[in-house]
Amino acid sequence: MMRFCSAHLTLFTKSLQVLALAVAVCFTLGATDAGSRYTNLNHRLMCTCGCSELLGECNHVGCQSSGKELDELTAGIAGGKNDKDILSSFALKYGATVLAAPTTQGFDLVAWIAPFAVFAAALLGTILLVKRWSADKAEVAALATDPATDALRAKIRRETGSDGGY
54 has which bridge partners? Predict the structure, then answer.
């Protein structure tokens, strides 16, 4: 009886492994598909006609750039180039502005770091400003309860006949 349960457990384990492999294969099929690669790459490039649209989204009438560039992209994929080589060839031919996002190397790394650095600096400045305001408010509150200040206010009220507008 013990042997029977062990065999079922082994069969169940092997079945789970086959199922996990099948799921992994199904998910990776679309990632290597030429159509999905084409869509991925044309959304990582900008149209060079000046419309400021992604290459795959350029839809204005009479665009003379997008058709030619999409044909170049198709030829690169059909030629067996990898994504990095295709993007590099476009950047070499049309300039770095053809890339929809800057690279993560060299000076382009600043484009990725700068927004976070500016946010951190603004957050720090805001925190310091709020602390300063809180300290000023505490000083004003201390002045409000100062006996000398109270005596001065009472004297002003007596001499001007004013109740402070309240």
Answer: 46
